């Protein structure tokens, strides 16, 4: 059962005391506020199951309080109590998103039943939010393929920091999957139901990038025909992914630092800053410490971004993942082309494993997609890009031949990894490998003997 706590907002002391006694007697944890202003200070400190408020209060009334609470938490459950049971007040409350209303004098049992129903609704909100997070978790981790120790460590870090508000800096060569990791951080957090927005800081001119990030007001410059919120505010409650942060111009680095420090941005042409709530995840293919040392990147901004560092290894540093990735991309291409799956021959697989992937996972995906389209019933050596075939035939001087796995070793690893990926289901593994079940048993027996 979820915690059942109720915030009671009532400016009359006697009524406030009556409500507290009634609700505590029913087993609820009760917090009270003697004004709407006091309630706004208490509300953000806990995830209240229900807020019960009087409509008619000195100062801010219950309807205005309802608006303010919904601005803080759109899923806030609010019940209003009023002695003014006119149709107008009831309709106004319902239009503003109140869960229900009761009139004074109220019947205790009726109020308690209304609160009980409201708490069940709140529980459903929480369950739906948890389901969205679980769906996001499944989607994103399923896109990050590999069993290498370095990748498992990244999974561990993502799982540990995803549900925090800490800024994260993801470092790695182009094509290593930095945006996939950023999405995994987002969809495994409490922000999963809110926007995930991304921008490449090196792809836009400085003036356009400033407007994209911070927004602008109408008339700020030629062509600014309407206000624009900007990505910081558009990602409200969610995550903003700043890709290639090392390419950000120096002038914008100053504004970004202030935004991160103050959690507010000043739109282009505006005189006053605006608050925002978005988690910042940045990525770079540069060594930012070197950039700092050479005065191309602000040191204070680097440390503000680098609260949590995630370093993605290049694909050539986790060769044990290449077979699984190649099979994944073959299957992905089959679905995209609405075509039957194709096994990868041992010769083609050996060439893929031994190639030095300068373009990392992205280059591997492109190579497998090309091979899938150009091949027949299976992805063979001839269907691979020429440079991969040439490397297979002539060797790669950047690697020690003594360290290069043999064809038999590559085949063995591929078979065992495929078997592990299907939960040791030998029939399914044989189907994916494109071999007879008897052949698979024979190979496994030989591996056991050796």
In words, what does this structure look like?
49% of the residues lie in helices and 12% in strands. The chain has 450 residues and is of the alpha/beta class. The protein has 19 helices and twelve strands. Residues 135-140 and 395-403 have low confidence and may be disordered. It starts with a strand and ends with a helix. The strands form three sheets. Strands 2-1-3-4-5 form a five-stranded parallel beta sheet, with helices on both faces. The longest helix is centred in the N-terminal third of the chain and has 35 residues, at 108-142. The radius of gyration is 29 Å and the shape is globular. Helix 18 (426-433) packs across helix 19 (437-449). It has three domains: 5-128, Rossmann fold, CATH 3.40.50; 143-313, Rossmann fold, CATH 3.40.50.300; 316-449, Helicase, Ruva Protein, domain 3 (Orthogonal Bundle), CATH 1.10.8.
List keywords for this structure.
single chain, 450 residues, alpha/beta, Rossmann fold, Helicase, Ruva Protein, domain 3, 3 domains, globular
> Quick check: average pLDDT?
85
Strand % is 5-15%
Structural class of the helix and strand makeup?
A: alpha/beta
- The CATH top-level class label of the largest domain: Alpha Beta
Number of domains: 3
- For the secondary structure, the number of strands is 12
Output the strand order for the largest sheet.
2-1-3-4-5
Biggest sheet statistics: 5 strands, parallel
How does the overall form come out from the CA principal axes? Answer: globular
- What do we call the CATH homologous superfamily of the largest domain? P-loop containing nucleotide triphosphate hydrolases
Rg of Cα set: 29 Å
Number of helices: 19
Q: Would you tell me which CATH topology of the largest domain applies?
A: Rossmann fold
Known CATH architecture of the largest domain? 3-Layer(aba) Sandwich
